[in-house]
Specification:
Blueprint (H helix, E strand, L loop, with lengths): L10 H12 L2 H13 L3 H29 L3 H8 L6 H33 L10 H13 L3 H18 L2 H28 L5 H8 L8 H14 L6 H6 L8 H29 L15 H4 L6 H35 L3 H21 L14 H29 L1 H9 L9 H32 L3 H4 L3
The structure holds phenylalanine.
């Protein structure tokens, strides 16, 4: 089966593809407003600690499981733990991919629509008018047909790239899109910083305000560390499975983390320098990007270009992440069922797009989860980011500690690092501690979410925090 399995063409290609998965709506859309509302740099410090303590071990764990088995999650867990129930962690990953991509594809469609809307001067009439902009956005997302058309285009592009294969599709796509994202973001940061009053935005984002940091923002930072690094659903197992034995996994993981973090910080800087320079409301939360930014781009010189570039990078970031999500499902059907890449991608990409249509409709005309008092879109978002990803991540950590074993995990890590002199006993002790701490922390978040769901009160509220 694995004789003619595809592989990445180069180390750089792999790092760009894996960081393309990590860099997505989470970095450019979610992180800036989460940091802005939860204590600025105080939040960022907690987030960075979470990335290092929880993110790094689980990321390395996923890459090692993937490269060792050269299989996507279900096959990988089956091979490393024959005859056990661990394969269900792999299936959980495949299920999470279904859930996430259903709503992610809808937002991907929005980013595409806003790119074109800006390009044709649509933001002009919204200049300085957040109410009008809010109305345009709400009318768009709640209408029946329009957002679905954009979602279909987004998903079609995503499927088109995956069908071309790991090297010629996913890797080549990332090699074009990731540098573009970094360069354009850099230009936007310079534009923001050179606007009068723009540096106020830096204070907002980077000045620590420990009083705004609540226990729930710490939980938020932890959950986000998972989402932003694409952990807990086997994406990195799948991408790791296309790696050859020459790669240094620790070095690759650090690159992915650095790029993901740097892009989140750059996005935050670009957004808040522009928001502050134009005197817009920085605490607009999730609506900041689609509602507030279109009202301020027309007010800066060359606004049409800046607005279009901004939404274009958001589109590319969403696309490289969406590709990695669908690849988990495609790889499962190729590895385990012997299907062709084309058949697996088209069939399941199609099914996900179909489910996504109901997410889109739930923003306005038709919601299938009305009984739960939540839109189908929000339902799938919460289900995945609050439960499925953390549970998948915690189980992966526990798998490495208890089933595969830190010894075998480190044997895999050592491959590709032969020329580096390390005290492996020390690394083993550190790894043990990190995996135990990360699994414990994640179990705590999940428990906290479950108590909040079942009892209506979270642990920190019970503790009076
Ligand atoms: N990491 C992506 C983001 O930041 C989202 C994602 C989650 C991608 C899980 C793949 C798997 O937007």
């Amino acid at each position: 089966m694995s004789d003619n399995r595809e592989q990445w063409g180069s180390k750089l290609g792999f790092i760009l593809a894996a960081s393309g998965s990590a860099v997505g709506l989470g970095n450019i859309w979610k992180y800036p407003h989460m940091a802005g509302q939860n204590g600025g740099a105080a939040f960022t410090i907690v987030y960075l600690v979470c990335i290092l303590i929880v993110g790094l071990p689980i990321l390395l764990g996923e890459l090692a499981v993937g490269r060792n088995t050269q299989l996507s999650p279900v096959g990988a867990f089956t091979r490393l733990a024959k005859g056990s129930n661990w394969k269900w962690v792999g299936f959980l990953g495949v299920a999470s991919a279904f859930v996430i991509l259903s709503f992610y594809g809808v937002v991907g469609g929005w980013t595409l629509r806003y790119t074109i809307y800006s390009l044709f001067g649509g933001f002009e009439s919204l200049s300085g008018n957040p109410d009008a902009s809010g109305e345009v956005f709400n009318n768009f997302i709640s209408s029946a047909i329009n957002p679905i058309i954009w979602q279909l285009v987004f998903m079609a592009v995503c499927m088109g790239i995956i069908i071309k294969g790991v090297k010629l599709g996913i890797e080549e796509g990332a090699k074009i899109m990731m540098p573009l994202i970094i360069i354009i973001l850099g230009v936007l940061v310079v534009r923001g910083l050179t606007l009068e009053g723009g540096s106020e935005g830096l204070n907002f984002l980077f000045k620590p305000k420990f009083s705004d940091l609540t226990p729930s923002s710490i939980v938020l930072a932890l959950g986000h560390a998972f989402f932003t690094l694409s952990l807990g659903m086997g994406t990195m197992i799948t991408y790791g499975s296309y790696l050859d034995k020459k790669q240094n996994l620790i070095n690759s993981a650090i690159w992915v983390i650095l790029l993901d973090t740097a892009i989140a910080m750059l996005a935050g800087t670009a957004i808040f320098t522009i928001v502050f320079a134009m005197g817009a409301d920085p605490s607009a939360g999730a609506g900041l990007i689609f509602v507030v930014l279109p009202t301020i781009f027309p007010q800066i010189g060359g606004g049409l270009v800046w607005g279009t570039l901004f939404f274009f990078i958001l589109f590319m970031a969403a696309l490289t992440s969406a590709i990695s999500i669908l690849e988990v499902i495609t790889a499962y059907f190729i590895d385990e069922k012997g299907w062709s890449r084309q058949k697996a991608t088209l069939l399941f990409g199609g099914v996900i797009t179909f489910v996504g249509v109901f997410c889109s409709l739930s923003m306005g005309s038709f919601n299938i989860t009305t009984a739960l008092d939540i839109s189908f879109f929000d339902f799938l978002d919460e289900l995945s980011s609050k439960y499925m990803l953390p549970i998948g991540g915690a189980l992966t950590g526990i798998f490495i500690l208890n089933k595969w074993g830190i010894g075998l995990f480190l044997d895999e890590i050592k491959i590709g690092m032969e020329h580096i002199n390390l005290d492996w006993n020390f690394v083993k002790n550190i790894s043990n501690i990190l995996f135990i701490v990360s699994a414990l922390i994640v179990c705590l978040i999940i428990f906290n979410e479950l108590t909040a769901l079942v009892l209506g009160i979270s642990l920190q509220e019970m503790a009076g925090l």
